[in-house]
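LOG
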Amino acid sequence: MHELEEILGAWGLSASSHEPSPITNGFINRTFLISGAKSFILQRINKQVFRQPEVIALNLRLASDYLKFHHPDYTFPGTVPTLSGEELYYDREGYPWRLFPFIPDTYTVNQVDNAEQARIAAAGFARLSRKLSGIDVSQFQESIPHFHDLGLRFSQFERALSGAEPGRKAQAKGAIADAMSFSSLVKEYEMLIQRGILNRGVYHNDTKINNILFDRLSRQAVCVIDLDTLMPGYFIYDLGDMIRTFVSPVDEEEQDVSKVSVRKEIYEAVLDGYFSEMGDVLRSDEKSAAAFSGRMMTYIMALRALTDHLNGDIYYQIRYPGHNLVRATNQFQLLKLLPVTI
């Protein structure tokens, strides 16, 4: 905690009047609730994942300034500047820290329980995109370059396959066959971009339901959090990741793929909630990519997990041998079940 005392001092906060407690439900950054007369969220950015933390700070500042001017009533958890006016404070090991205001009387959930919850969350993510739809996208940078580039992810899979250890390749025979069987999605993705069907905008890019804060009383969406991947992209990234992570009653860690299914009422609620906010922003030809979005994002995650398995589990944390192959198999099963059209 001595380290935190020094870090808190960058914002003029004393450890004697602000009690830190770790928040452990995140997997990338190190996060603390700083409790006091006025509470905050303190977070250390994982510089191994986000190699240019200043890009995250830039994107958040651009979005925050735009929203304060154009949509002052919208809740956007921008960072609190240090005493010297900086958005980030670097500790002795070179890790960047930032401080956010704590938003009281809110809560998060880790899984979608019902259609109304899915509709509210989808509208919450879409609301942020709609309010940012008039911003100059060219000012933003990618905090993780090519994060959702399906062509790149497929190329990485092919390289991993060509260099994989024979035992791992044999173990993944079924998943490899699945990966190849859906390769036409790569051409479809590239066609959508090359033909200008998709408009580039500023999107969240990590739309799991636990990145929405809900109001404790009304159960409505208060704001979007975890904004490290707020950056240029396409609407299919946000909508697709919601479909991928909302519709199945089990997540990608489930080993029994017979439990993977598509809850039709959740699927429809995601679309309804999303287009209730973004329906007037997107063109009709863009909207036609809605079903593709879920399949594309599920395919990406399956490819990434399979690639890591073939590479020897060097990226994702694993808890047991074959964990990444389980993730890939789970996502390929979901991909097989997702609707091709709406």
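LOG (cont.) second protein
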Amino acid sequence: MRYSIIIPMYNVAGYIAKTLKSFTKEAMRDTELILVDDGSVDDSASVASEYLVTAGISSFRVITKGNGGVSTARNAGLDAARGEYIIFCDADDCLGEAQQDCSCDFAGLANRLNECDEDLIAWPFYNYQDGVLSSSLSESMVRPKGVCSRNQFLRFNLLQGFKSRLGAFAVKRSLIEKYQFRFDTSCTLGEDVEFFMKVFMRADSVRVLEQPYYIYNKHMGSLAYSYNIRRFEAPLAMGRVSEYMKTHEDVAESIDADVKEYIDNGLYILHGIYAFDSCIARIGGIGPKRQLWKDYITNYLQVEKQLKMKLSAMNTAPFGISRKRLLLFGLSRRLYILMRK
């Protein structure tokens, strides 16, 4: 078996068919689909099974488990996988070559992947929101091409804006099992970045495909459109990424100093400020904003302490965050602390 595609499902009966449309009988000759139903209360599992059977696809398994969150679902998929490469796909996204109707065809991606044998194969992706499809690549970006080293890929990814998503790479299962990588089940936001950053730091060779092969659907039902104080779990996850790098000398020694600084400080700052910006954008109003700061200080004081240290340690603003944004963040944080006294 060449590929295992892991798709966690939770109450996705209404749109799982669009995701599964990516996979055809011809494209699935050496690929297995592993669908993990994480305690859905709708008929997600039966809808998915019926669709695949009707499409003539037999190389799939549906794992049904009690609700435990997306990390437990992905871990169950990893435990069951038999493929040489692992690919993840969310149940509301699409995997493969983009079609005119914003669906995908996995066959085009499978053909490209069959030419590769690196530890990690990565590709750009599309964002789809409000009827608009946009690439994760910018016109001015220095784009990685072909095969690159671990350090080169991390540099592209962290310092030069080549964004990654969980569905935008294939990784050898032997690499995952060698280092016993699994998703942190205590974390509900940021667990995906924690997982793939650790994988990236262990991949000796990386091939980067030029064409986007994933459509990330942003919709009003997603976590991005709600106030959720647990967003601050994401910087904590980045702290674990930093700790992993620092406690494994063979990893740290293979990475340039500025890349290490970004992993140690920049990722934490980036995800911490993103958590604030996202919460503020969803909560609205001066009173509720004050509640946000109260929730933050009460529940995530460890984030507050780490951010203060990392803001002092980071010599330059992390990619995607302006220096002005850092200064404004620091000012608003200090003002709230003064108001509490």
